[in-house]
Write a structure and sequence with these properties.
The complex is a heterodimer of chains A (277) and B (210).
Chain A: E1 2-13, E2 16-26, E3 30-34, H1 41-48, E4 56-61, E5 64-65, E6 74-77, H2 89-97, H3 105-114, H4 128-140, E7 146-150, H5 158-171, E8 178-183, H6 186-192, E9 195-200, E10 203-209, H7 210-216, E11 217-222, H8 224-229, E12 235-241, E13 244-250, E14 260-262, H9 265-276
Parallel strand pairs in A: 3-8, 3-9, 6-7, 7-8
Antiparallel strand pairs in A: 1-2, 1-4, 4-5, 9-10, 11-13, 11-14, 12-13
Helix pairs in contact in A: 3-4, 5-6
Chain B: H1 2-13, H2 16-31, H3 37-50, H4 52-58, H5 61-66, H6 72-103, H7 111-138, H8 141-165, H9 167-175, H10 182-207
The chains are: A alpha/beta (277), B mainly alpha (210).
Chain lengths: 277, 210
């Protein structure tokens, strides 16, 4: 079963269109939504959560139409954690206890201890990292089966980012748990994702298993002349300089004689985006 | 909805000193014999809750609450229930102030006039936010803040006029001549406006992208 099914999702704003996006997140998997700022990641996530209305398309969660009750099973962290600024941990617990049918006070309390969040201070005094940890603690304290995270590591230092990646890894030890996570910090997603979806200028330009991408694509160092001899579809992106051409190629479409090097998802993303520009 | 109402209450706590000062000021003014200020004060209590919409948008609560197990209709309805509770609270304050004033021999108020004061407090407490809420749900916090400032200026001006000219007291005394039907008419109008405002806000909010 798919945790999330999106078909032909479309949304138009002045100067931006999210164009016909379709993707499936299989249950038990982590999908990273990658794209530069303004690519449409947050718009996609907000439409999944009903915060923004799509112009067209269909979204299903666990195979069902979206509903308010269903959100008991979805843990959400938005790019800004929307807690009223004057609230303390006690207030947040009181609100969430009466909001989520499966709210677990013990789990929440354990996360507060684990994250060393100050018990009596108002939310507005928290640092960006502490606020994000609070958002994650809330998302993980109501027995959610699906986490939807919009830029949870943005603006955080590497230590906190690593902690968050660890927590997300723990969450997916249960095979029924799934995560959709967006970020423009590709290296974070590369550590944890099973699937990668590239959004660029409102279009989904690639969606594939991460391991498959790493197997399929490789770096080649060559010359412009040799590159011209290759099938055009073999080259995903290239950078030319006075010493030659650095390109990302599809292994299956280039001769075995080429000297290839493994790529990272970040490199693949950067080459694809720059090629388009 | 219980959690959403609790959230409003916890947010009031943040400004309890200001609210307490308002209550003391209005009740004190009322106790000195200027009863006309009491129904008008209802609008100010409503303003406290109305201001939460601005805080909600600033803290991104609006988007976050939709990601929680709440439909948009429930979110809108919680604001209306909170406004109703605020109006009832200010009505009780009006009645208690009047009762104390009468008991202390500051004034003599007929039972009919007492009913008129009670109903007017309730209706003003309701009607003021009923016009502002659909605007606030339609536009962003900046728009609603501007509308609130504008309405607050008007309310402040009205309050000043009422206090200085004793206009409200005279008007209410005049209304009390029709006290057998006036409270019913006022209540009926308030109920209809409440229903229309709630319906409009739900429709507006259900279509809004946050």
């Amino acid at each position: 079963m798919n945790a999330i099914e999106i078909k032909n999702l479309t949304k138009s704003y002045k100067g931006f269109t999210l164009d016909n996006v379709s993707l499936n997140l299989p249950q038990g998997c982590i999908m990273g939504l990658i794209g530069e700022n303004g690519a449409g990641k947050s718009t996609t996530i907000k439409m999944i959560l009903d915060i923004v209305h799509p112009d067209g398309g269909d979204i299903r969660i666990f195979g069902e139409e979206r509903s308010a009750v269903q959100k008991n099973d979805i843990g959400v962290v938005l790019d800004e954690v929307g807690i009223p600024e004057s609230f303390t941990i006690k207030d947040i617990n009181a609100i969430m206890k009466h909001s989520f049918t499966n709210w677990n006070e013990k789990t929440f309390s354990d996360y507060m201890t684990k994250f060393r969040l100050p018990e009596k201070k108002a939310f507005k005094t928290f640092s960006k990292g502490m606020k994000m940890k609070m958002g994650i603690a809330i998302a993980l304290s109501h027995d959610a089966k699906l986490l939807i995270l919009d830029e949870p590591t943005s603006g955080l230092d590497p230590v906190v980012r690593d902690e968050i990646v660890e927590i997300l890894n723990d969450f997916t030890r249960d095979e029924s748990h799934s995560i959709l996570i967006s970020s423009h910090i590709v290296s974070d997603l590369e550590k944890i994702c099973d699937y990668i979806a590239f959004l660029h200028n409102g279009k989904l330009i690639l969606i594939e298993e991460k391991d498959r991408l790493l197997e399929q694509f490789c770096f080649i160092n060559t010359t412009e002349d040799m590159l011209r001899e290759l099938d055009k579809s073999a080259i995903i992106g290239k950078k030319s300089n006075k010493f030659g051409v650095e390109a990302i190629a599809d292994r299956d479409k280039i001769p075995h004689t080429f000297d290839t090097h493994p790529i990272t998802i970040e490199e693949l993303f950067l080459f694809m985006v720059k090629e388009d520009k | 909805m219980k959690a959403l109402l609790l959230k409003e209450l916890l947010m009031i706590r943040q400004r309890y000193i200001t609210l307490t000062m308002f209550i003391i000021m209005f009740c004190g003014y009322g106790l000195s014999g200027n009863f006309g200020v009491l129904p008008m004060a209802s609008a100010f209590y409503g303003m406290f809750l109305f201001g939460h919409l601005n805080y909600d948008e600033q803290s991104k609560w609006q988007a976050y609450s939709i990601a929680m197990p709440y439909g948009r209709k429930t979110i809108v309805s919680s604001k209306y229930v909170a406004m109703l509770i605020s109006a009832l609270f200010s009505t009780v304050l009006t009645d208690v102030t009047l009762a104390i004033a009468v008991a202390a021999g500051k004034a003599e108020i007929s039972a009919e006039l007492f009913v008129v004061y009670t109903v007017t407090s309730l209706v003003i407490g309701l009607v003021y936010p009923l016009f502002l809420l659909p605007i606030a749900f339609k536009f962003n916090a900046e728009h609603s803040r501007m509308v609130m400032i504008l309405v607050s200026c008007v309310m402040g001006g009205l309050l000043g006029v009422c206090a200085s000219s004793n206009f409200t007291t005279k008007a209410l005394a005049k209304f009390s001549e029709y006290s057998n039907i006036l409270p019913l008419i006022l209540l009926a109008v308030a109920v209809v406006l409440f229903a229309l405002s709630w319906f409009a806000s739900v429709k507006i909010y259900e279509k809004r992208d946050l």
